[in-house]
Design brief:
By secondary structure, the protein is of the alpha/beta class. The chain has a domain of 162 residues: Metallo-dependent phosphatases (Purple Acid Phosphatase, chain A, domain 2). It is 31% helix and 18% strand. It contains nine helices and 13 strands. Strands 3-2-1-12-13 form a five-stranded mixed β-sheet. A five-stranded mixed β-sheet has the order 4-5-9-11-10. β10 and β11 form a beta hairpin. The longest helix is centred in the N-terminal third of the chain and has 16 residues. The termini are far apart. The structure holds manganese (II) ion.
């Protein structure tokens, strides 16, 4: 086993995902890729991202955008596509993803867990985050997929108002997450947010851990393990509201 390379929200940016694999010198069969979810939507080539993830044997957690198209796919599988179109409302953007993905690619997304524990790195990977008042294992799906902040009443919230949940999480595990492109890189004592908005024309970021290396508690030491590649272009306007972010 080689390095563990944890990659931020790819969001259909297949070219940049490929750029990142080259940039870190990804060695197939040696290194391990772990994606923080939201493989699909916003960017130009969701199917290409899923195919690349499959091809490099990536592990990944499910993101809220992955879950959105999966909810349509599960309904279509069980009740037919016409029923799914009526019952599961998709934005135009998500509809395009649902039409682009093959059954095999949907099957890959459907197999993604909500959380991946990598005890050799003292690391948990989730898409959005956790409710710091609970153990990660007892957090509900909605929190893991959408949380951003803790509101004034102490509740986990998907809004940007309030305290970033990552500032309230006191470990003991280090959590690496995505989902919050607007806050960009987040480096807290026990949490690292690596959604740096590639689909909006910023960067695709990764945390690169040597075999068996615990995620450093020290922020500067952790920052040295981060690397990124620039977006080839802005694929999606910032704040383009298309449902769940
Ligand atoms: Mn997300």
């Amino acid at each position: 086993m080689g390095r563990t390379i944890v990659v931020g929200d790819v969001h259909g940016c297949a070219l940049e995902f490929d750029d990142l694999l080259r940039h870190v010198g990804f060695a197939a069969g040696v290194d391990r890729i772990v994606l923080v979810g939201d493989l699909v939507a916003r960017g130009p080539d969701s199917a290409g991202v899923v195919e690349l993830a499959r091809a490099c044997g990536a592990l990944a957690v499910r993101g809220n955008h992955d879950e959105k198209v999966l909810s349509w796919w599960r309904h279509a599988r069980d009740h037919g596509k016409r029923s799914a179109d009526r019952k599961v409302k998709l934005s135009e953007r998500h509809r395009a993803v649902a039409e682009a993905l093959t059954e095999r690619q949907f099957g890959f997304l459907a197999g993604l867990p909500l959380m991946i524990a990598l005890p050799e790195h003292e690391l948990l990977v989730v898409h959005a985050g956790v409710d710091p008042a609970k153990s990660p294992a007892s957090c509900d799906e909605d929190t893991l997929l959408t949380v951003r902040s803790i509101d004034d009443a102490g509740r986990a919230s998907r809004k940007l108002t309030g305290t970033p949940w990552a500032q309230r999480w006191l470990g003991p595990q280090q959590i690496v997450f995505g989902h919050d492109a607007r806050r960009n890189l987040q480096l807290e004592d026990f949490a690292t947010g690596i959604d740096t908005g590639c689909c909006y024309g910023r960067q695709l970021t990764a945390l690169v851990l040597a075999e068996g290396q615990p995620v450093p508690r020290d922020r500067a030491a952790r920052a040295r393990l981060l690397t990124n590649v620039p977006a080839r272009q802005a694929w999606c306007p910032t704040g383009s509201g298309d449902g769940p972010e």
